[in-house]
Amino acid sequence: MIKYYSTENNKIQVSDAASSNLFMVTEPTPEEKKFLTTQEELDEHNLNSALDPDEVSRLEYETNHVVLILKKPKSYSSNDLFQCHVNSVGIFLFENKVIIISDGNFPLTSDKKFSKIPSLKSLVLKVLGYSIYHFMEHLRIMSQIADELEQKINSSVGNQYLINMFSLSKGLVYYLNAINSNGIILQKLGNSPKFNFSEEEKELLEDLIIDNSQCFRIAEIYSNILASMMDARASIISNNLNILMKTLTLLTIAIMVPTFVVSAFSMNVKIPMQEFPYAFWVIMSLAAGSVLLFHAYWKYKKW
Hints:
alpha+beta; seven-stranded mixed β-sheet
């Protein structure tokens, strides 16, 4: 699907194909791909790279436009089972238009980050900034999920929460690689002599480099914490299971003691107190006393 926009009065507005200078392409059909490669002169390899989630970030210069392939986090779904992935975004910057190819629409007309667009170059930087912001939001949510999983692991004897933690840690590795790739693109944009950025755009680019560096650092800290504490959390689950087995064993022994007393007096042989009128209550008292003695011994040994 292709949506058409135009940048008028420093704002992005919905437009038609004839007067638009911004194309937003999501999940293009074969006919739309053919239109982009023939009419808009996009290289087929670069077009496919923008749709490939495993494509690395890069900056290329074609004859009449610039190609940027960057990474952004994939929208999380419950079917992902705590596994976070990244997708590619393709930005094709021409002299008088921009074509953005992504797995999902950017909030070009609703988000305040795109409220002021003085130039197409500024729009490209805003898209990069939104990707960084998206990563930061995902990292914040991942931190909250990790805290919840840690609390559940503290009282769990199963592996499900630990497996979820492993998936979360794996997703952070993908994020680290993607954020680092975006940082390389930002550095190349700043060092490229082919981009004549204005002073305002240069300041925005410098801010984006700093924000991306901070985002990478946060992701690295979260990843290191999860990786370093994984063995400790596995030990917690094992210890919880040992405590449960110990409790069950003690309960079994506690039940066996009075059972032994009652069984001894229920043997089909002649035993003392068999004719005693209060034999039942004496036997029950001995059984209860054995439980109390075992409990006292339990406390003494601090089991």
